[in-house]
Amino acid sequence: MKPAEQTPLTALYVAQLIKEAGFPAGVVNIVPGYGPTAGGAIVDHNGVDKVAFTGSTEVGKLIQQRANLKRVTLELGGKSPNIIFKDSDMDHAVKMAHFGLFLNQGQCCCAGSRVFVEEAIYDEFVERSVEAAKARKVGDPFDLTTQQGPQIDEEQFNKILGLINEGKREGAKLLTGGGRHGDRGYYIQPTIFGDVQDNMRIAQEEIFGPVKQILKFKTTDELIARANKTIYGLAAAIFTKDLDRALHVSSALKAGTVWVNTYDAFAPQTPFGGYKMSGIGRELGEYGLHNYTEVKSVIMAVPQKNS
Predict the structure, then answer these.
(1) Predicted pLDDT at 305
(2) Taking the model in full, what pTM does it have?
């Protein structure tokens, strides 16, 4: 396993636990390093039969190009639609949409960053969402009362602020946040844009930060077309009390995972992965195991037929 160069410590601690648990030497190998060198060596080496990568679509494409026909599975970026119908439980929908975007400072591949809200409840949903964002405590991640810590590094910090400025330039309505939090560290204010249009960069590009875009829709058919109008297809969510609608929309959405009346609900037996530019293959479940197996046919001639 090669951890991202920005976050090696968790993997190294896992390695310590693996050793304490008594795994034989060499069963699990942790290889810290930079992507082009350590990661490139893993992808290039003929002794490695299978590569599984979780990260950006940009790097995933590079891995697929140079993998030299070895088995590759990719869990990549997303721009997941979170759909709120007017018959949903408003309190629950606001809470889950807040959680689905701001979890881990927005640094989540399946973050529900495009929140589609039915026109009849749009204003109320926006108002409640802004209240929740303003109440979010940003600060020291070692403080147990903190709800949002810093972004991973300066590069990502600057990218997020750049896309926030682009959202303002393109005419999205900044409802809260939109800047740096404090004067030290890579902290960004919880940010919400309203009146977002599908062709805006903030509605198309993966921001990977605490920036929520809220979009208005009128009809289900319109909603499905707009939700699918993205290069990504990792996840989606639907909030409604109408089971028939939930089944219809979930079937129509081009996403590897669709949650209904919840968000970020995972189970080890449930496959996870994306459509389109969100990746190839699946993790977890029986489907995930298939990626690590080979199929072999053995055809044998026998000298005498016994039946």
Answers:
(1) 74
(2) 0.93
Give the Cβ contact number of residue 195 at 10 Å. 16
User: Who's near 265: CB < 8 A, 6+ residues apart?
Assistant: 259
* pLDDT tens per residue across span 233-291: 999 999 999 999 999 999 999 999 999 999 999 999 999 999 999 999 999 999 999 99
Task: Give the pLDDT of residue 297.
Answer: 97
Residue position matching structure tokens 């795994």: 23
Can you tell me the distance from the alpha carbon of 90 to that of 88, in angstroms, rounded to the nearest whole number?
6
Active site positions, annotated: 75, 109
Listed residue (271, 272, 223) closest to 249, CA to CA: 223
Considering only CA atoms, which of 207, 179, 199, 183 is closest in space to residue 191?
179
The upper half-sphere exposure of residue 44, i.e. CA atoms within 13 Å in the direction of its Cβ, equals 7
Helix locations, the chain, DSSP H: 9-21, 40-44, 57-66, 90-102, 122-134, 154-169, 201-204, 220-227, 243-252, 285-290
